Amino acid sequence: MNQSDLQSKASWVWRETLAIHRRAPETRLASSLSSVEIFVALYYGGILRFNPKNPLDTGRDRCIISKGHGSICLYPILADLGYFASEELHRICEVGSFLGGIPDPIIPGYETVNGSLGHGLGVATGVALALKSKGSDKGVFVVAGDGELHEGACWEAIMFASQHRLDNLHLIVDNNRISMLGYTDEIVSHGDLNGRLTAFGWDCGEVDGHDVSAVQAVLARQKKTATGKPKALIARTLKGRGVPGLENAPLSHIINPKPELIDALLETKS
After folding, report:
1. CA dihedral 104, 110, 111, 115 (to 10 degrees)
2. Which residues have a Cβ under 8 Å from the Cβ of 161 and sit 6 or more positions away?
3. Are 45 and 81 in contact, with CB atoms under 8 Å apart?
């Protein structure tokens, strides 16, 4: 897609995510709105190799979504691409639906269990090592939140990936600077996250995470560059983007906007 098409698709996904939360308030809206452009860049920007007709195709790149609760915005993307029928989007969190508030591998297009934060990067590192040992050219992409980087297991994976020169591994950090109970800088500050990852031997880029074309461009550059280093993209985002009272609010993770506000936003943005 060209830049205009990518932006149009991102706007559509933003609206669809609001509509999903309107129907299923159990979903985490704020976390999902900060990652919209990341997933649009991955799936519509020519970054990932995937096969909706065969989600486990061995020729696919692996996309491991560590912040599962913040990937509800991926549901309409997967339906749009043909992983499952779009009618399923109207049954989220209902009895008998495979689309839950926390996604798991029963959903076509999801690789791993995504409930317990801080483990996705370690899993992705293992997958990247296995693929590299087999001589595969497939990439492994992991989408993580900045809050889960407080977990020590993440930094073990970061060191491991660097030591083993896993340049097929791509970490995308949804850096919205808010975890469940407040701003990350007031809990455990990451400081200069770009500098820290670079010091650990990673090839890093940083970008406005809501500029979908910029996200796509950096990911494309990193994917085609063989540096012998794992790659990281720090996407500066806003939690709850575009929703008054939710955007960048310290407790946005656990706040549900009033249904009438969502209805007004959907009507205005339609």
Report:
1. -30
2. 125, 128, 169, 202, 230
3. no
The boundaries of the domain holding residue 35 are 3-269
How many domains does the chain divide into? 1
pLDDT in tens, 47-102: 999 999 999 999 999 999 999 999 999 999 999 999 999 999 999 999 999 999 99
Q: What is the CATH number of the domain that holds 139?
A: 3.40.50.970
β-pair type (182-183, 178-179): antiparallel
pTM: 0.96
Contacts of 170 (CB under 8 A, 6+ apart): 139, 140, 141, 142, 219, 222, 223, 230, 231, 232, 233
Asked whether 91 and 97 are in contact (CB, 8 A), the reply is yes
DSSP 3-state assignment of 171?
strand
**Structure-token pair, residue 140:** 């492994």
> What sign does the dihedral 205-211-214-220 (CA atoms) show?
positive
